[in-house]
Write a structure and sequence with these properties.
With about 190 residues, the protein is an alpha/beta fold. It has a domain of about 130 residues: Rossmann fold (3-Layer(aba) Sandwich), CATH 3.40.50.980. The chain contains 5 helices and 8 strands; from the N terminus they run βαβαβαβαβαβββ. It has a 5-stranded parallel β-sheet with strand order 2-1-3-4-5, sandwiched between helices. A 3-stranded antiparallel β-sheet has the order 6-7-8, with no helix packed on it. Helix 1 links the parallel strand 1 and strand 2. The longest helix has 12 residues.
Length: about 190
């Protein structure tokens, strides 16, 4: 998944942009995580239990303009489109369930794709269907790659930034906590 400015339906993303990742553990979460990194943007992973007002803080604090979410969580992000977010990519987990099974599948995983036609939304399926090729990967070891947030037990959650030079960018060890928007303290 890549979002060049020339894309007809998918949101634009460029080096250093923050992309909110708001989904359950799923293939789409992992694909999104690494696609955001591949686009030289910064992953802002947030807990799928968050509600709209909590998400409003993450969007404002991180300066995220784009979010990727599961369709069962989209209602929490909908009010933020045009109020911080420019575009939300909405995924259906069932798109990756290709084999029949006798296992009990949670409803959110089994739910068929909802055809959203709202301004500021792009279906995951449609973004992938564009078949766009990514531009050259330019991020280096000193570029920021992930901004997880603290739990906020002593106040508002704070973003921590990690660099691509971390031994495991999924769980960045080097971290600087920020009290200002977009972790400009780096």
């Amino acid at each position: 998944m890549h979002w060049p400015a020339s894309s007809s339906s998918a949101p634009a993303s460029s080096a250093g942009d923050r992309v909110l990742l708001f989904m359950q553990n799923s293939p789409q979460f992992m694909i999104s995580f690494y696609a955001i990194l591949r686009a030289d943007a910064m992953v802002v992973p947030v807990n799928p239990m968050n509600l709209t007002e909590e998400l409003r803080h993450y969007v404002a604090d991180s300066d995220a303009l784009v979010a990727i979410t599961g369709q069962e969580l989209f209602a929490q992000l909908r009010p933020l489109i045009g109020n911080g977010l420019e575009n939300v990519v909405v995924a259906a987990y069932a798109d990756y369930r290709t084999q029949p099974t006798d296992l009990k599948i949670p409803e959110v995983v089994a739910a068929p794709r909802q055809e959203l036609k709202e301004p500021g939304t792009t279906l995951w399926h449609d973004a992938l269907a564009e078949g766009l090729e990514p531009s050259a990967h330019l991020a280096g070891p000193d570029d920021l790659c992930v901004m997880p947030y603290t739990s906020g037990t002593t106040g508002k959650p704070k973003g921590c930034i990690g660099w691509t030079c971390s031994p495991n960018p999924s769980f960045s060890v080097p971290c600087r906590c920020s009290t200002s928007p977009a972790c400009n303290a780096a």
